[in-house]
What does this fold into?
Amino acid sequence: MEKNQTDLQMVRGKVGDSVPRRELRRLLEGKGCYVDDIVMPRMAHAVFVRSPYAHANIKRIDTSLAQSSPGVLHVATGADIAKLCLPYLGTLSHLAGMQSVPQFPLAIDRARWNGEPVVAVVAQSRALAEDAAALVEIDWEELVAVVDEETALDKETPLIHPELGSNLCWERSVQSETVDGVFASADVVVEATFITSRHTHVTLEPRSILASFNSSDRQLTAWQSTQVPHMMHWVLAHHFSLPEANVRVIAPDVGGSFGLKIHVYGDEMATVALSIMLGRPIKFVADRLESFMSDFHARGHRVKARMAVSKAGNIQGIEMDDLQSLGPFASYPRGGLTKDVRCSIWWVQHMVSIAIEGARELSFRTKACTANTAQSVTPSPAWSLRAWSIARRRQLRWTLQKSGN
Amino acid sequence: MLEPLEKFDINFTLNGELVSANVAVRQHLTDFLREDMELKGTHLGCEHGICGACTVMLDGEPVRGCLVLAVQVDGRHVETIEGAVSSGRVAPLVDAFQVRNAGQCGFCSPAMILTAAQLLKHVPNPTRQEVREYISGNYCRCTGYEAIVDAVLIAAASHAGNTVLPTK
It folds into this structure.
């Protein structure tokens, strides 16, 4: 160990050298501290009954059997949790026309994705809570699920939030004035459609939170596997109507985030509500199956692109039409659209046009629709344009050669 | 007809110490080690036998703690990362992982080191391909595999008094 310290001191200060991390040794030796490693007096465990349907009405919830299951301390429905937690809305005020609806930690009356938490069960151990969760009876009325973004905006497609009047979350269109003319008179127009599958981040440590509310001094402490403890500090204070001075969020060692642990999740908010409700520490650690169902997704895009090219091989115009599904709610508090916004701004500034060899006539459309898929956040679709322009360059060269130009 | 057993008495060796415990028959070894034995260095990433974060040594062989029931270790020897670190047997690997920065979030690391130690026990001078193959059952979602393979090779080389790394 002493030798190691000396080695560390020797390498420090050399610009360009790899500097070993001080905290790495305890992680390597199994002496880190992740949320699930923390144990508190009177700590209880929460598990969630999740919707087995992508879209369904909740007709009746019977928790009586679960309530009397061994070790069970409490069973809460969406309506119970909503009494303690202000709903959250994932729209962004600087994006005109973006629409979503206020979201509650647990589904009330209707579930809108497969895996949405519906009922919380608190017990003395995770295993006992799981036993009881299996005894919760819910009468479901299955509804038509909207899972295809290509048809999500059609008139005949059911609305996920009827009060919004549309499944469109946000739309932006930017184009230069003469782009249509360029395509009409182009020597060659090439087209391609890119589809990227949705995926989720799969952090090795699942989402985890340990919330401890001290009812005597009304102090809330949350140990959370999160990238954004400062953001969560405000979120918890605001939505649980506590002074910010009464809330503390601690991010201990975090077993991978990758952008996943940057959002507000209903099951984690419900865990905090349960701690306030019961006045004792409540831990929730997602298991792998519910992580796949309830963690945010990313990447699901359908990009249709066209390129107008002259016989000399110059790219004269580009059109890009991006369609994506954001799931049933815009993610809170980041909206899930920031990358798309940035991309459209790039277009306005013609930054992309410089990157793609001087095209000056541009059209960019992006549509984010609501669907009964897991909630999603999105990266910039600009990559597809770049990849496409490189791939098409070769084909174009071949096409032009073949036509004798 | 016999009533199903809820609990079962076990006696086993844990990191060199004799342990007697009354365990739930349905409890897997990792939950038992983490919750009852308070050994938090063994992690749970999937509980499906896929990710390898729960790897512990059972009678000298690496096993998935999530796929072994606690009752199955009755009369046997269990070693966790805590024991392997205390005995000093994985120190060269820990040193190499630290020097090569072969860890990011650290969630997979203790299990990765136990697995790597088993490889070096049987194959003191492995090739890169052998290291890759052997640790393929331990997921690193931060995808630091290149550094991890390097670190295992550094540990092997330091043991052999050789500082030149194999490249293939």
Q: What stands out?
A: The longest strand of chain A covers residues 315-325. Residues 382-402 of chain A form the longest helix (21 residues).
